[in-house]
Task: structure prediction
Amino acid sequence: MTFRTGFLALATFALLLAQNDPDWTKPFPPHLIAGNIYYVGSKALASYLIVTPRGNILINSNLESSVPQIRESIQKLGFQFADTKILLISHAHFDHCAGSAKIKQLTGAKYMVMDADVPEIEAGGKGNFQYGNSATSLYPPSKVDRTLHDGDQVKLGDTVLIAHLTAGHTKGCTTWTTKVGGQNVVIVGSPNVNPGYKLVNNTLYPQIAKDYEHTFSVLKSLPCDIFLGAHGGYYDMEEKFARIKDGANPFVDPRGYAAYVADREQAFRVELAKQSGK
Ligand SMILES: [Zn+2]
Result:
C-alpha cells in the first residue's frame, strides 16, 4: 500500500465511522425468504419479520432512522407494524439495536435480549468493551422485558426460535435458529473480529478469544439449510434476491453457510495468531 492509498483508506474508514455505510440506510425491496420469514431490512442492515397467527416477531431494529423504513417494508408485504409482538436482536451494536426503543414505544413489542448484552442495551450502549462511551456508538436505552439465556426458546403462535449464545463480537451476541417446512434456518449473529478488537490481554473482556472459539464450534454444529445473518453481506443477500424467481429457493445454501463460517474462523485464527505474536 502506498502512502496515498493508505491515507485514502484511512480517510475513508474515518468517514465511514463518522457517517456510517450509506448502504445501511438505502431501502431494499422487502421479500419472502421462506415459509413465514421475510426480509424487511435495508440494503446492508438485515431485519427479519416472522409472521404467526398470534402476531409477528421482528429480529433487528437497526438504526433509529431505520424504523420508518422497516415499518414501510412490513406494510408493503401486507402485514401490520402494530402486530409486532416480540422484538429480538442479533447483538448489542447500534446498527442492529438503535431503533429498539422506538419500536417498543410504537408497537408495545416485548424486547427479549441475551443475558450478557442486557446491561448495554439498558444503558444505551455505554460500557461496551470496545467502543466504551464513544458518542457515535451510543443509542437510546431500552428496557429489556425478558432476559434470554443460551438455548432459550422464544415462542409465538406455531413458531419456535432458539437463542444460541455466539459471543465474542459482543458478550451476548446471538445466533437465531428456527425451522420452516422442515428446513433449518440459521440467522448468524456475527462471527467477525472488528478492527481494533483485542483478542489477547483484553482486561475488559478477558475471555473474548475463548468466546470466539466457542462461537465457531457452535456455528459449525448447527444444521443449516437457509443461511441468513445480521448483515445481508454475510449471505450474499443481493445476489440471492436477484435469483428469487429462477426456481429453486436461492436462500437455501448449506454450502455457502459452511464456507462462510470456515472463512470467518480462518480470519479469527489469523488475527489471534498475529496478536499472540505467533
Ligand atoms: Zn456488530
The pocket of zinc ion is lined by residues 91, 93, 169, 190 (CB under 6 Å). Residues 226 and 252 are 4 Å apart (CA to CA).
